[in-house]
Write a structure and sequence with these properties.
The chain is built from 10 helices and 14 strands. The chain is an alpha/beta fold and about 280 residues long. Strands 3, 4, 5, 6, 7, 8, 9, 10, 13 and 14 form a 10-stranded mixed sheet that branches. Strands 1-2 form a two-stranded antiparallel sheet. A two-stranded antiparallel sheet has the order 11-12. Its EC number is 4.1.1.112, 4.1.3.17.
Length: about 280
């Protein structure tokens, strides 16, 4: 039998809400914030809603009403799952508690990560699309840079080699939430993106940049409010000849990526999908 969840009582909720944290999460104090918040969540048995050890039960349950002698066999009864309703309500309470410790400066960032699609879950639930190649997983060759650890958007492709003139030209156009995916041939001999281009991408509304190649000005890029993936950092700048191809199919690690497809990146990896996936 499925174990039952218990809804938080009004007394418990009031007690949680009256806890004074006395600080908020800002763009610079994540370690301190986590060290202060985690013990609170553990001692109040709330951590399971955060780390996934109390998973969301399915909204519908099926029970078999076996009547023994019934020649028709078992009758399957479908009903709403009260555990699901309780979990959703408890989870909303925990979310509210945590969001009350997030500063306005960090709100958008936290909100974006909460709303983004988890790549592991997307793989688990889309086995058929993975098998047909409609969803592809990029090989785990990338390092994570930029403020946004989880990001997604329609792809603009670019093929260049040790030359970043076209990277700047594309980033000077409106991003409109797109992710620039640069096939730089995996070159480890110079950087295709640096702090200035990272800032430009942020200002022009790009969501992220994925580089099959290197970046530089890592500290500046890490301060930009975009997601960045690259093979490594390299201090040298690239050529400035303006050679390359925009919006063409590219290959990264043997995986084809087409302009207009969707990219999903989080701490677990990077997915390419022919169409937009629902969260
Ligand atoms: O100028 C470049 O080639 C890359 C760079 O350093 C930047 O974008 O800041
Ligand atoms: Mg620079």
């Amino acid at each position: 039998m499925a174990s039952s969840l218990i809804a938080f009582s009004q007394i418990e909720k009031t007690s949680h809400n009256s806890h004074k944290f006395g600080f908020t999460l800002s763009p610079t104090n994540y370690g301190y914030w986590k060290a202060m918040l985690e013990p609170f969540l553990i001692t109040n048995n709330l951590i399971g809603y955060v780390d996934g050890t109390i998973p969301c039960p399915p909204p519908i349950v099926q029970t078999k009403n076996s009547s023994g002698k019934d020649v028709e066999g078992d009758i399957v009864i479908t009903q709403p799952n009260t555990n699901h309703t309780i979990w959703v309500s408890n989870d909303a309470h925990v979310c509210m508690l945590i969001m009350s410790t997030v500063s306005e400066a960090s709100f958008q960032h936290v909100h974006d990560s909460m709303g983004s699609l988890a790549t592991a879950e997307a793989c688990d639930t889309n086995g058929a699309l993975l098998a047909t190649g409609d969803i592809r997983v990029l090989p785990p060759i990338f390092k994570i840079y930029g403020q946004s650890r989880a990001f997604s958007g329609p792809i603009a492709t670019l093929k260049v080699f040790e030359d970043n003139v076209l990277v700047r030209e594309l980033l000077e156009t409106k991003g409109e939430g797109r992710v620039l995916v640069i096939d730089g041939g995996g070159s480890m001999r110079c950087a295709l993106v640096g702090g200035n281009l990272g800032q430009l991408a942020q200002n022009m509304g790009w969501t992220g940049i994925v580089v099959n190649g290197c970046i530089r000005d890592v500290d500046e890029i890490n301060a930009c409010d975009i997601g960045v993936r690259a093979l490594a950092s390299h201090p040298q700048k690239s050529n400035k000849k303006g050679v390359g191809e925009r919006h063409v199919p590219i290959h990264i690690g043997g995986t084809v990526i087409r302009d207009g497809e969707w990219l999903y990146a989080d701490s677990d990896g990077v997915l390419i999908s022919e169409t937009e996936l629902s969260v």
